[in-house]
User: What shape does this take?
Amino acid sequence: MSEFGVPARRPYRVGYAPGAYDLFHIGHLNILRHARSRCDYLVAGVVSDEMAELAKGRRPMIPLVERLEIVRSVKYVDAAFVETVPDKVETWRQVRFDVIFKGDDWRGTPKGDRLEKDFAAHGVDVVYFPYTVHTSSTQLRRALDALAAPVAEPLTAERR
Assistant: This one.
């Protein structure tokens, strides 16, 4: 709060939090919550099925239209945007955000370094938030795959 009892302005006006948001979990919620606390208006970028497959080598388990509705319904999100191009600067040209939020698993990586360099040229900050290590869509997908794996039939007297 400011000295006049008016809520203090957040550090950024428009923030952008991209992700696949497949198998929505607490890590996703944490990123969106932290992101919204740092900007006046939060746009969540939900990558298309094709973009997710390009980036991760597999399509999301939850279809885009459903992931978009889930993310749009989160109280921290002011708007949801379907991300259809791999170039984040091209996305910035469409959305016009002041800051992009990513999990800190990107920090210090070639893709994170490239993101920072590309956005520095446009005056856009890159802010990293702690990655939720104990939960990820990849871990959830592995657990679901294990549950769906065929179970070996026990040997019966006839098959011995």
Q: What stands out?
A: The longest strand covers residues 39-47. The helical segments are 26-37, 49-56, 64-72, 88-95, 110-120, 137-148.
